[in-house]
Design a protein that fits this description.
Blueprint (H helix, E strand, L loop, with lengths): L3 H11 L4 E4 L6 H4 L7 E4 L3 H15 L3 E5 L2 H17 L3 E7 L27 E2 L7 H13 L6 E6 L9 H9 L10 H13 L4 E4 L1 H5 L3 H11 L3 E3 L17 E4 L4 H8 L4 E5 L20 E6 L2 H6 L4 E4 L2 H11 L25 H11 L5 E5 L4 H8 L7 E3 L7 H12 L5 E6 H4 L5 H7 L5 E6 L4 H9 L15 H7 L4 E4 L2 H13 L5 E6 L8
Parallel strand pairs: 1-2, 1-3, 3-4, 4-6, 5-6, 7-8, 7-10, 8-9, 10-11, 11-12, 13-14, 13-15, 15-16, 16-18, 17-18
Helix pairs in contact: 1-5, 1-6, 3-4, 3-15, 5-6, 7-12, 9-12, 13-14, 13-20
The protein binds thiamine diphosphate.
Amino acid sequence: MATVREATLELFRAHGMTTIFGNPGSTELPMLANLPDDFTYVLGLQEQAVVGMADGYAQASGKPTHVNLHTAPGVGNAVGAICTARANKAPLVITAGQQVRAQVTHEALLTNRDATIVPQPYVKWSHEPPRPQDVPGAIGRAIHHARLAPRGPAFVSIPMDDWDAEADEDRAVHARRRVVGDRAVPDPAELVQLASLLDSARSPALVAGPDVDASGGWNAAVALAEKQRLPVWGPPYTATSRIGFPEGHPNFQGVLPPAIGPLADTLKGHDVVLVVGMPVFLYYPYLPGPLLAAGTTLVAITSDPDEAARAPMGDALVGDVALALQELVELVGQSDRHAPDPRPDPPEPPDQDPMSGSAAMAALADAWPDGAVAVAEAPSSTAALRNRLRLSKPGSYYQTGSGGLGFAISAAVGVQMAQPDRPVVCVVGEGSAHYGITALWTAVAYKVPVTFLVLRNDEYMILKWFAAFEQVDGVSGLELPGLDTAAVAAAYGMPARDVWGREELAGALREAIAAEDGPRLVQARVASGMWLE
Ligand SMILES: Cc1ncc(C[n+]2csc(CCOP(=O)(O)OP(=O)(O)O)c2C)c(N)n1
């Protein structure tokens, strides 16, 4: 007779989930004892980094990914990263240890009190099985919740004495064998209606969001834009987890501004705006104004019924984003509208010492190898990064979708593990780096060859920009004197360099990216400034 543990490992195997990201405690040890050889345990030193690494791995592999956390304090540490994973729609199956059942009621040490509440509201489903025999079924259900649209984290708390209990063979076998398909096409009649709305529009536009990339709809979005000659925008820099359209494509016009008034203003003049694979819209900050200019009709396509329901304006079709786009490409006619003008090339960055964030991003572009992936969290330089790299291949860009820091430095490790054949470069402000800094150790320990580019400006620049915007003076806590991330990386065992000028930076990046034996860190000194270009 199989134990609950054996049945659960079989379940993970059946779903190709043999990589576990975790940080162990005594309540998890019974699950982790003598893991079979086909399982890999990736150790993270703190739970934020564990979840961030798994988030990057899940998104870049497209597969549900197992995260194992310690009971209450471990799950508590992880909640910020779980919030980000939800915004990123990362399919995470999060398990956590719990006291033995006989000691939960009187709350012995390490009891995860109200375990299912701790990760809410950032998980799609949260559960502690009523009996040990229900563990494989509960984890099976969590796997389906995580991978069904909209993808996201699901949580199961498991009392530590459950693993050695006898499994319910019949249920475990069914749990392992279930296949649940979720790629639903929107109502065909609504798609026909949408196609004719586009065909008859005077000046339609497309806004392409992260789920275009995640769903595999990239080529269909390009085909639609070309057939209909649509100008294309991306979601605001602050509010996307991936890129939904090739940013070097002549139809691409840049990203939308993040607040209500300016966003509506950017889209005015378009009688039809089709928003695909993203919420409508993740506004921030609050700059009031009409949601849409008079005469603009907005239609969204999303796989997330919640996104469709909560949008403050416009119509929506709910269904798989890639399939909907593929259908739409077939249904629309070839337009003879004028093709949109391409964006100008980025300007030459100012020549100054220390270099500007724009110059640092120009150096990155000089060193950028074909097919590389950027994982970014460099708030005051994100605009320059996007404008200079103009990434144009699917799966080439990841950032925090929630605005929560600590994602990039951890996620880059997971992305590189899932995509060993593509160079991964993590571009991170020195402030952001320290929310997930312990992931550097994992990169070293597992020889994950990520290049970390740390932009050091000795401050939380973007918060100074916000302070000016919010007209608040004398804010404390925005300076970061003496924060030497290269020295921290070296202490974790990572070869690290400190560089000053654009040429030196480009050279250091080329070397770091070429290194295949493990990670490298390059710390670039940059001047204070918001590099909007
Ligand atoms: C978990 C979390 N804590 C705090 C913040 C607030 N925050 C937003 S940007 C920022 C500063 C980022 O500084 P840095 O990475 O050095 O980049 P810079 O602004 O200098 O470009 C902070 C603290 C956040 N977004 N997430």
